[in-house]
Sequence to fold (1128 residues):
Amino acid sequence: MKQSELITAALKGEATLVVKNARVVNVFTNEILEGDVALSEDTIIGVGKGFAAREEIDAGGAYLCPGFIDAHVHIESSMVIPDSFSRVIMPHGTTTIIADPHEIANVCGVAGVRAIYKLSDDLPLRVMFMMPSCVPATPFENSGAAITAEDMEQFMRKSRMLGLGEVMDAVSTINCSKDMMDKLRLFDGRPIDGHAPLLSGRALNAYRVAGPSTDHECSNYDEVVEKLRTGMRILLRVGSAANGMEELITEIVKHGLPTDNMMFCTDDKHIENIRREGHINCIARMAVKCGIDPVQAVKMASYNAARAYGLRNIGAIAPGYKGDMVLFEDLKDFKVLKVFTRFGKPYDGKPTPMPIIPQAVYTSMNMAPISKDGLKLPAKDIMPVICQIEGQLVTERRDLPVCRDAEGNFVSGNGLNKLAVIERHHALGNIGLGIVQGFNIHGGAIASTVAHDSHNLVMVGDNDDDMLLAAESLRECGGGFCVVSHGIVLARLPLPIAGLMTDAPVDSVLEIQRALLDAAAYIGVDKKSDPLVALSFLALPVIPAIRLTDKGLFDSASFKFIEV
Amino acid sequence: MKQSELITAALKGEATLVVKNARVVNVFTNEILEGDVALSEDTIIGVGKGFAAREEIDAGGAYLCPGFIDAHVHIESSMVIPDSFSRVIMPHGTTTIIADPHEIANVCGVAGVRAIYKLSDDLPLRVMFMMPSCVPATPFENSGAAITAEDMEQFMRKSRMLGLGEVMDAVSTINCSKDMMDKLRLFDGRPIDGHAPLLSGRALNAYRVAGPSTDHECSNYDEVVEKLRTGMRILLRVGSAANGMEELITEIVKHGLPTDNMMFCTDDKHIENIRREGHINCIARMAVKCGIDPVQAVKMASYNAARAYGLRNIGAIAPGYKGDMVLFEDLKDFKVLKVFTRFGKPYDGKPTPMPIIPQAVYTSMNMAPISKDGLKLPAKDIMPVICQIEGQLVTERRDLPVCRDAEGNFVSGNGLNKLAVIERHHALGNIGLGIVQGFNIHGGAIASTVAHDSHNLVMVGDNDDDMLLAAESLRECGGGFCVVSHGIVLARLPLPIAGLMTDAPVDSVLEIQRALLDAAAYIGVDKKSDPLVALSFLALPVIPAIRLTDKGLFDSASFKFIEV
Fold:
């Protein structure tokens, strides 16, 4: 619709759709105003009374809010393509996501970014992007591709590319590596996402001077306060893997910290959890439960994120804003009654026509041949062990006595298993080996090609035969997850798109996922934990304290490999 | 300084200047934190303790705030060039202004905009610009120039040109005139200033859909609420001519209206008043007196404006932000102790080297010959009269009995004087004549080439001889102000730059201004009023209710000329 037609429609009060009898949350005055909202096609042309409408929807006194925004999410982590993902989250009132295609970029490079950008083109979900900044994430691992500042230039004028994605490599940033400076310079003046768990003091100052202006890694209140004081926008994350957010929000309320520069994100959240608990509305619910004022919670879920990322026309219900809205039963449980898409239309949940997936993202699985010898880990009496902490992504290093075979190689025992990371992009033959506590596997192995951030093949097991079979099983199907036991593949989820995603229906993905978890439990993994998520973060060298990459065991605090 | 050097300085805590022992206002957490602020050249690299410094300044426990921002100002209205203006306002803590060179643009067109942009290039004051949107302001008057969307394109990539200046012609906007649509389209996605006194309901909706997103014309609380609800940023203006702001702020406090989208501006404020009362700090003082929380007042005076106009690196004291700061004795009276410029240096008040003023702005005074006959105003018994309202810019129309001479022409009497607006740009010979109440002139005339917005020559008097002399006196000096009485020029302020400004020292300008006011009082003008300001707004057809342009008497409510 032409701008002049919209202006005229607003002047005459002639709407294509009027949502009547709503309690409209006004993010500018913090009021809840009873009235009607008039739209002309995709644009709000007025809030109040007395509009003429071609079509009317009665809100029945329910609460109409700006569509909710996930300020930071990796679509790839849902394991389904953008269309499927949108159909999982939109029923929960999320109408906009700010996606960082960091995962597919680490596997397929710019071709991966182009693919996911294209696959999200025509969705009713508003999919905005941040350019992955750290591909590879660190120099301490082999990824599928590298993206330089020069590679990024082709994306600078794309309308949905907002800024630079999470700058995870804080060390390169504050030490002014040329590559990082080139990227930061390219995005100067645009939003730049940070990712700096526990960064503090002068290092944080230097990081801020360099450019990153958001953070979604805060794990305690003091960290929130220190980062907020430096002008960072705080993204409160409630995904699948990270926890502790209720305590954090309760502290924020207790101290009366202003929430104007806070917003919500999921980062990574399982589609099963989204279906069960909700999405951004689930975080809003938690926030209100922790004592955040309901209107402020709505703003954190919408307006604050829109402002942070320079999205001028969304995040509010006011003339000139786009029609992304969500109708909630109340502002406590945030149960969704109706969702209005970026087209200003009621969301109908229908899939978009079959998307064409570029061939380039189907050929990512490229491992060198693997032998049992390659999985042998010579060990001393005492070895550094990656210890998982329940319900958290961070790990801790402990030096523990280990069991060894006659040749002096590590064997599982005392609750310790073998961990392996195998390079899978360019058949380099790299294998990193280590010891992990927390899986308790007996008689089997679990493998995954979802392994942040380089997405090599990561696997854990108590015997090399099953580990070898797990790796070969994933090679065969182009990547994914599998659980094997005593020479049998118990369950397998093929993820042929970059070894990260599938275009299979969400229901079948969830069904296989449940089978994977059952199989994992069968080989001894605690039912309360999710070994698939745990496994996929164990190769991520930017999160403290100890990790394993295809290049070896890594100390994420000192950013150095650990010599054994 | 290179970015990498700044990052390194932040990391090492090595500052060029440290402001020690300050109470630092943090606009993100709303805290006041005791500590030191470290700068490396023009950039803040840390807030806290333990920095190494080449130079130290002891703040002695005073309050360090982000430099204050005037969110909307016409430099030309100060009657002095930008360098002089900056030396008037900076001692009061204003370190950034968002200038709309609307006045000089209406006289000299794009050449005027270029001139004032260039004249503000190297000042310690940060001078940002909005592109004048309405040149001429309306089709109801003859201005010196017109600026089309095409003319504007040359300014789009200038780093200090932020957006589109106040869109005063609301009628053309909501009726989608092609010219206005072209301009709005050109600035789509950038800040667009509104100017829409009393605009409401569907007309306001249409105006918002068209693009303007700020307003500095609110004169009552209901107007503030309605505009704020539509997402407009509210600029609370305390200048020389408009009043009533204390009541308005008191209402805002009483109703608990959030101030995040509110900021301060002066629009037009006499340099004499600035010297006496202060500038943006004067508004902050008033706001706190009216009950606004001091930290919120500081934010309204700095951070909120920076956010509204997309100025990412100012408006806060945090790493990566520019060194614009002001040290106040307290957050009540806002008495300035020290100002730090955009260069991160203590402000020293020195003038910049003699600026080169382009010749193009010196040749604006171009009136056709004027005769006494041309000033004759044939009148009926009852005539429409422009009645001034004490302390306000708005006027009201009254139809009053008038005195006439033998030929039936209007003569002064009963407190009514003759008003004339003479086209002065292209010697068109247009003269608009009308009757005005409120000056009470006896035996003299006052003339001005400062006459918003087209800046024709406007004059008021009780006899045609003195009016003629006043006009000729201003023709001679290239424009300005003068007061004449009984054939003698009592006082004259030459403003040879566009008939609006002078590069004469501020002190001499103020001295002559006082002489003008004394002279005005001598011919009968009430000492309490400022006839120079009053006169210069009487030709402004966008402010209610009745005005005079060079084309005739004008009804600003119906936007139609008044037939007598």
